[in-house]
């Protein structure tokens, strides 16, 4: 049984963590751990555009929010749909992470320092 699943943000971070712990799976402080890796971002906002606006036929919201002018801030969160979708190619990684979480005591989300 795995007590702690350590989720690294990317394979290179998982590799560094495995070096620090001595392997990708083992025992530390009397707890069983396993290190798994994501590959960065797995989910993104849905199309039709980067800002994911509600229907905006004249593109007024798109224009306003693309400008980053101080007079347009703060943004109104009701102007966004906030729908999300998996990034292409992420399903397999997400399924692997989900399977690895079965029966664990805790999930530790870990990052490394990229100088």
TrEMBL record:
Pfam families: Toprim. It comes from the Bacteria. Residues 5-114 form the Toprim domain. This is Toprim domain-containing protein. It comes from Bombilactobacillus apium. The lineage of its organism: Bacteria, Bacillati, Bacillota, Bacilli, Lactobacillales.
